[in-house]
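Good morning N.,

You mentioned wanting to compare the apo and holo forms, so I went ahead and generated the holo version with NDP. This is what I fed in:
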Amino acid sequence: MGNLQGKVALVTGGSRGIGAAIVRRLAREGATVAFTYVSSEEPARRIAEAVERAGGRARAYRVDSADPVAVERIVDEVAAEHGRLDFLVSNAGVATLKPVEETTLEDFDRIVATNLRSVFAGARAAARHLRAGGRIITIGSAHDERVPFAGISAYAASKAALVGLTKGLARDLGPRGISVTLVSPGPIDTDMNPASGPLASTVLPMLALPRYGTGDEVAGLVAYLASDESAFVTGVSLAIDGGITA
Ligand code: NDP
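and this is what came out, ligand included:
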């Protein structure tokens, strides 16, 4: 039996990559997991079915994280459906790899809406439901600290802002026994950044551990942050980045 029995989690962007690994891991620990996706209906359905086959509980919802009203609504809906909400894991994110001259204001707005504004909206709504022991865990990026190559200025800005947001939320919610943490991964082998993709030859020489990480490794850190063992951890950004920021 996992250590999250009876708990309810909402994970944004759980249909693929890191988010899917987090959904599987939290469900394996016993949590009931609601997760969102925006376009991958079939993969989302398969994740939910795989969790159920393994004896867990997961349900997928189509919610566009670029729409903060929709994000607030799903937080309220999941809390109402289960009578509680214990963990909000804001994972959904988008990136572009373009020099600033080619990055449009529309690109910038979409990145900030998905990676930052929706995280704030989700936290605002979750604060209405979380009780002592509750957690807000956000997936940031190693680029919140180091931007070692060109083409990701808007993405890096959206992720760096999460550092301040996490500290501020930790101060707001700490008195209620709710912790708020940021997980900052380095290169993780997903559709966004495949280990065989165009970035690999640039980033591999920058790593202390010269390989891409896995979604399951990030999910392990999220499971720790959701557990009682992390009760005194809040307001921090925890790197899981193969040493790219070392
Ligand atoms: P993927 O592109 O592999 O998966 C993205 C997930 O987010 C999918 O489930 C996708 O849903 C969902 N998503 C994207 N946009 C929206 C939206 N508007 N509304 C709802 N869901 C959305 O990305 P990763 O798994 O690699 O990334 C997950 C998080 O980790 C992101 O925040 C990313 O910035 C961060 N990260 C990733 C790193 C990496 O190297 N991979 C490194 C550092 C941080 P759908 O399937 O429906 O499109």
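The chain has one domain: 8-240.

Happy to go through it together on a call whenever suits you.

Best,
F.
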